[in-house]
Amino acid sequence: MLARVSTPPAFKRLPRAVREQQMLDAAVKVFSKRGFHAASMDEIAEDAGISKPMVYAYLGTKEELFVACLHREGTRMMQAIAGAAAPDLPADVRLWRGLKAFFGFVGAHRDGWAVLYRQARGEQPFAGELAAMRARLVEVVAGMLDHALRAEGREVSAVDLEVVAYALVGATESLADWLADHPDADPEKTATRMMNVAWLGAGQLLHGVTWHPQQDPA
Amino acid sequence: MLARVSTPPAFKRLPRAVREQQMLDAAVKVFSKRGFHAASMDEIAEDAGISKPMVYAYLGTKEELFVACLHREGTRMMQAIAGAAAPDLPADVRLWRGLKAFFGFVGAHRDGWAVLYRQARGEQPFAGELAAMRARLVEVVAGMLDHALRAEGREVSAVDLEVVAYALVGATESLADWLADHPDADPEKTATRMMNVAWLGAGQLLHGVTWHPQQDPA
DNA sequence: AGATTTGCCTACTGGTGCGTAACCCTACGC
DNA sequence: GCGTAGGGTTACGCACCAGTAGGCAAATCT
Prior knowledge:
Two copies of one chain form a homodimer.
Chain A lengths: L15 H19 L6 H7 L4 H8 L2 H23 L6 H18 L1 H13 L1 H28 L6 H24 L5 H20 L12
Helix pairs in contact in A: 1-2, 1-4, 1-6, 4-5, 4-6, 4-7, 5-6, 5-8, 5-9, 6-7, 6-8, 7-8, 8-9
The structure holds a DNA duplex.
């Protein structure tokens, strides 16, 4: 008896653009779960519902795939933040909106984002990529602080500014990790907490209050 | 003619305890340079001036070796900090000494420490190990804050405390990264900068000053 | 209706690197 | 002076996985 000449392909053919996104989704998921090296192209392909050669055909080698993930997620995040903090608002409002957008983003992309960034930190080939993005963030924050400072007629050395901005960004990333690990936590509340630490601390600095190691016998 | 029956073994035999430390030194170096997966046992062995089976004989599998590194470095760090911050001092002094010790440690172990921790964050098997250590740190910091708060008759929810402590620890780690990447930076000065951000921000909170999202049209 | 392009697969290879088996040699205890 | 234990080595098995060759079928074009 005649079997169906062509088995109705239980899995549909999809246009490239769609499949690419599915692959990236799968890649982000697997990379974040396993880490770059431990992740296998086979698992990514399987998770995307496709076979391995397709991944190579569309997104290239493993490294290129990872970079693609980094780019997509990074761009999404940057847009989310940039869209929130217009440059003509007072510093605290900009900071607040930026934080809200940032934590909102992390909350919505819990598995993807945070862990992807946890990964990229370690692996040599991508550390640079990531560092560049963080540098942009630090620069923005430092710019905000500088702006606020000048508005009060004060000034601080560039390196001081950079370091404070670095600390602020680090604290924020740390809370993002915390948020990613506490699925039931509220992004906005986390943003508020961060704002408290950041703005009050930075605020003091802005007003010229500083701390010095007074007597220190040890 | 008779060659020397036993070539005077150009490389000496050493007692186990010594070789183990050499191996750990090499492992820390290689792991931090390459990352866990990309590091090869062969390279570690070679770098330690020994052959691979010795590493397996003394320190076990690759994972076990990494954990051993983590433990040694972690313990060293914790001791450096614990030795600096006696529990009966005022909170700001404790914080200051702790920070000084921490950044001093990182400054002295630049390549080893910081990068090792950058690694452990990502790799699944060790993230827990690392998280536990960080949790201990967070707990200590939170305890300090709580202590200072109670001394002023105020009280804050445990989760609030935890989050602030988390942010502080994150900011500190971030500056440690910065320090590790700027070999000519001064650890103590970095500690001072961190102290400024942390103590002033936390200090405000301690005095009941908080920030709220006032009107927020967007 | 062909012809061609595009989506998709099964099945391999080649390299890399963990972990081990089997063996050697020097020191020291007795 | 001789056994035994501990420091040390070379050389391999084996599994895993990135990347590829070669081919089939459904759209789409002409």
